[in-house]
Every structure is written in structure tokens, then in C-alpha cells.
Amino acid sequence: MKIYILAANLIKFCCLLFLYFFVFSSCKDPIIENTPIPPNNEDSIPVKVSKMDWWNDARYGMFIHYGIYSVLGGEYIGKNIDGISIHFQSAGNNNSNIDTLKLGMGAGAEWILYEASIPREAYRKYASCFTAKKYDPQAIVNLAQKAGMKYIIITTKHHDGFCLWNSSATEWNISQTPAGTLWNYDLIEPLARATRDAGLKFGIYFSHTRDWMHSGGLGPIPELNMKKYSYAENQLYMETYTYPMIIDLLQRYHPDIFWWDSENPYEEFAIRCNALITNSSTSIIQNNRLSTLSAYQGDFATPEQAMDENTEYENMELCMTVNSSWGYNKFDSGWKRPEYILWCLLRANKLGGNLLLNIGPDGEGLIPNECQHILETVGQWIRTNSDGVYETRKSPFSFNLPYGPATWKEKNNSQQLYYHIFYWDGSGEVWLPGIMNSADEVEISFLANPSLPFKVESVEGIGLRLTGLPSNKPSELCTSMKIKFKKEPKLIEGAREINKAIRLDALGAQIGNVRMDDFDSKPCINWYNGRQIKYKILITHSGLYKISALLAGEYPGTITFDFGNGTKVNGNNQATRGYANFEWQHMGNIYLEPGEYQLMISNKQTNSWLKIREFKLELQ
Ligand code: GLC
Questions:
Q1: How many CB atoms lie within 10 A of CB 11?
Q2: Mode of pairing for the β-strands spanning 479-485 and 442-446
Q3: Where are the transmembrane segments (predicted)?
Q4: What does residue 151 show for φ and ψ, rounded to 5 degrees?
Q5: Ligand 1, residues 209, 290, 326: which to mutate, most atoms within 8 A of Cβ?
Q6: Which residue segments constitute the domains of the chain, with CATH numbers given?
Q7: CB 522: neighbour CB atoms within 10 A?
Q8: What is the mean pLDDT of residues 488-513?
Q9: 215-230 b/e with 16+ CB inside 10 Å = b?
């Protein structure tokens, strides 16, 4: 009898084992991205497949900030935690004339609970207004596709701790809202499905450690007089909320990207979180915001709003808002120009990175019209110029060409540089300084106007020169050309001397965290004190060079030109009757020997900032 039971149990066990392997292995994500593709024959080179391949090809994605804060839209009228009546408005561009106004210092409207010191009980009540009745996942996906974006990442839980799905770890979730009833207690699933159905990748944003509503979440909490929780309290928070939520999110949505926010300083938590992700799938990509510790920096860096071109990134995703808030802010009409967004996208691509552009739907789920329009305008441009965006890789040309960045692609044994011109100077000629191949070693075409006629010649010591071009810009937003190399590219960075003058325009600079403006006329840098601008320059003639700057500003100051090895010029700039009045001003003279220089330019204004369009070095 015992033997019979034993045998029966053994059979049961084998069946279960078989079932487990059959059912669960077939449930796995069908994309097995880590399996190397075997070579077809002995001569062929094995193709390496990395989990980053699709991400590197995608180059452009959509970020969505949606939650209870979307209902408030940047405004809170009520009492703060001290019981004092306040009218709070998140900073925006048109909120100047209101009496009871208390402006947040540029904080995104998703921070309103914190910024306006709203009592948690009062904030909780907004759940009853979160309807999501116009939330339309298919429309969001359609917009992403029209915009040319290849993946979508949504906030499943932001710092206010609210979960957009029916988490069993907390009651502070979608089930407490009218949106829950309307959307089967889950706003994430229909979006994930629509995204995947459209062939796009799907990612999850998750604030794993900063939480103002659940006890133990890291980050100062206004209601607790800015108290921060201890290690033990945070440990309990991670056990109670974070780990179960991560498991839940992974099982429900099988995300392609896990986008952590607010780094945790403790190694134990980084190890646990990381293991949950990597054990669930070998193909999930993680960002670098899991931990402050260098060992847990994930698969890509996440500069915010602006990036420093002087940083060496392996993989980088610039995340950026279309106005200045992540969450919906009804007062913020400071929409960025499509040209600016495009310029950020192409600069990110040039560095081998992606742009993740944010939309903030309102409480009902509607995306502001201005935002949709901007996304579509950029998308329209991408459609005709897609070759220079998708599948591009980090460019060997680390400095920009005059008037814009250049992206790079190496595919099917051919090498291509895509030069994106954001200022068309009307001269009928375009220089490609530093491309030293002869004219017959390259094939040049304009992406949006393949039949545009022009002549190409190679000018010794400078590079290629295109003439016979129209004086009006051929494309809206930006004119892009493809330079296909028939032979090995011969690139010399820093070659810029044309007719005994070296012109260094704003778009051609290597810049850190600075803003580019005036895309409607001639782009300039909004230059604050202490921010550096760099150019690599090649001096071919020794002699005295006169340095001047084309600038506009309301205050005087100094501009320092540092050529390295102690060779410096300090120039004085004068006020120019406002930011609309650009003037050439003389900065000083310098004697330079032939050679390669890393020119670093910095400024110190007595007040405010300076607009800078161009520098010029002229051989005397
Ligand atoms: C910051 C902000 C947050 C926003 C995020 C996007 O960490 O705290 O509000 O979600 O950046 O990158």
C-alpha cells in the first residue's frame, strides 16, 4: 500500500513538474533577447544580441506622469499643515496677478502635496475627483506613434504613494477613485496592452523609496515637520510596500523597462530590488535611479531637462518636460518650441542616447492640446527625416558642427553622418568643416529633399563645401543632410578656420547644463554665470587673433576665454539695451601658435544672464 501511495505521489510529482515546465516556460516573454543568434556559416561573424539593442534603435520615447496630482493641476486652495489658509499655485508662466498666491519654486505640479504642505487627509480627499473619464490609452498610443516615439513609460506610483493599479499592499490606490470603477481597477493594463498591440515597448516608472503617504518612505515629509524615517522604518516600508509591489507589477505587466525614481542609499535594498527584476527576466532594462551606490547604476543614466555634453555616457536617456512640469499644471504655458525639442532629441542621439519626452494628462485624462500639437509637429519632421534618428549610434564626432549636431549610423558595412542644421544663414552655401574626404568619396543628400541640386567641393585644410543651395531654408524646424562615406571617413575635429576667421556659433558649442533659445530667429545660448561652453579648435596659422562676441544682455560682466596651458583672455562685455539687441563686442586679442586647442569659455555677469549667439576669432 505504502509503495502504491509512494508511486502515485511520484507520478503526481512528475506530472506537476512537466506541467510547470510546459505551462510556465511558455508563459514567459516571447522575446528571448539574450540568446545569441547562431552564425549561418563558418565565415560569417556571429551577431551579438544585447537587451539594449531595441532601446538603442528606438532613440525616442514617451513619459507619462498621471496621478492624484493631475486633479489639482498645480493649484491648492485650502489649509496647509499648520492650519493656515493658503492659495498655492505651482510656478507657471501666466500666474502673476493673484492675491493669495504662493508660488512653488519651479517645482513640478506632481510635487504639490509636498510644495504646498497639504495635510495628507486633505490630499486623500482628491481621490474622489480622480475620474479618468477621458483617459484613452489607445489615443495616447496613437499620439506616441504620430510623434515618432517607440516606447511608453508611465508612473505607476509617484512620490505621493498613490498606485494606479489595484495594489493589495495599500488601500491608497485606484480602487478608491471613480477611475477605478470605470477602468476595472487598473489604469496600467489597458495602456500596456494598447502599447504592445502597436508594437511599441512598455515601461514602468516606480517611486520605490520616496513616499509621502506611507510611513517609512524616504524623503522629508512636510506633515511630519520634514522628518526623515530611519533605516529600520525604511526597511519595514520596503518589506511592506516596495517588494510586494515590484513583484506584482512584474507579474501583471511584464515591463520592458523598470524606471526607478529617488535613489535609495542602502545596499541591502538595492540588492533585493535588483534581484527581483533580474530574476524575473533577463531582458528588462533598468535606469540608474535605484540606488546612490555606484554598483547599482542599472543600464542607463537619466539626466533631467538638460544634459552635459562633456560627460561620457555609455547609455543615456535625457528625460524632459514639454512645458516645465511633469504632472499636469494648468498655469504653465511655457511650452518648449518643437525646434528645441528636436534639437534635444538629436543631441541625445549624437551621444548615443534617447530622449524621453513627458506628457501630463489632466485629472480626466486629457492631454493639453498645445502639448499634442508640439509632439505631432516634431513627429512630422521625424517621419521625413527618420534615417538620421532611429538606429543611430554614438558619434565619433564628439563636438558639434556649426549650426547643429550630427548623428551617426553604421549599418550594413556603410558609415553615415547626418548633419542637422538648425540655422539656415541664406548664403547658399554650407560648410562641413572637418570632413576631409574628397568630394567623390562621399554621397550627400538632403533627407527631406533628395532632389535638391547643389555642388560639392573639398577645400584643403577645412573640409567639404556645398554651394548653389537655395537661400530660403529647405525644411521647417531643421534641415538634415546625409553624408554617406564610400571610403573610410576622414574626420578632423576642430577644423573651423574659413577665410582667416574661426566662427564659433552657439549651436556648434559643446555645452553643459545650458538652455538654447531663439529658435525662431538665430539660436543663442541663455548663459548663466559659471556654466561652461567648449569648442575644439584647430589653429593652422600662427598670429594675433582678435576675439569678439555677438551678445545681448542687460548687465555688464566678464567673459573668459581659456585656451589651456595658462593662455587666457578676459574680455569685458557691456549691456546692450535688452535681450533683443545683439551686438558684436570686442573681447581682446591673443597670439596663437598652430595646434589643437580645447577652448573653454566661461562668464561672470554682475546680474542675471547673457545671451550669446556667436564668437569669432579673426587673424589680424
Ligand atoms: C524627479 C522628480 C519627479 C519626476 C522625475 C522625472 O525625480 O522628483 O517629480 O517624476 O524627476 O525624471
A1: 10
A2: antiparallel
A3: none
A4: -155, 160
A5: 326
A6: 54-71+130-388 (3.20.20.80), 406-485 (no CATH), 502-619 (2.60.120.260)
A7: 18
A8: 91
A9: ebbbeebbbeeeeebe
Residue 373, CA distances (Å) to 143, 333, 342 in order: 10, 13, 14
**Cβ(261) – ligand 1 distance below 6 Å:** yes
Instruction: State if residue 357 touches ligand 1 by the CB under 6 angstroms criterion.
Output: no
Distance 47 CA to ligand 1 centre (A): 37
CB-CB contact of 454 with 468 (8 Å):
yes
Please write the tens of the pLDDT for every residue from 58-68: 999 999 999 99
Beta strands (DSSP E) in 255-387 are 257-261, 285-286, 317-320, 354-359
SS3 547: strand
Angle CA 68–218–76, to nearest 5: 30
| Structural contact between residues 61 and 153, judged by C-beta atoms closer than 8 angstroms | yes
State the closest ligand 1 atom to the C-alpha of 155, by its place in the atom list counted from 1: 10
Given a contact cutoff of 8 angstroms between Cβ atoms, the answer to whether 63 and 359 are in contact is: yes
Which numbered atom of ligand 1 lies nearest the CA of 358?
6
Q: Answer whether 115 contacts ligand 1 (Cβ < 6 A).
A: no
Q: What's the rounded mean pLDDT across residues 381-397? A: 96
- The 10s digit of each residue's pLDDT in 148-166 is 999 999 999 999 999 999 9
Whole-model pTM: value is 0.91
Whole-Å CA distances, 316 to 60, 303, 319, 356, 381: 12, 8, 10, 10, 23
Is the CB of 319 inside a 6 Å radius of any atom of ligand 1? yes
The grid cell for 502 is 574661426
Which residue of 157, 290, 304 sits with most ligand 1 atoms within 8 Å of its CB, as the best mutation to test the pocket?
304
> What are 206-242's pLDDT values in tens digits?
999 999 999 999 989 989 988 989 999 999 999 999 9
Name the residue at shortest CA distance from atom 4 of ligand 1. Answer: 326
Q: Is the CB of 110 under 6 A from ligand 1?
A: yes
Cα–Cα distance measured from residue 41 to residue 466, given in angstroms and rounded to the nearest whole number: 44
CA-only gyration radius of the chain, Å: 28
DSSP-derived 3-state class of residue 467: strand
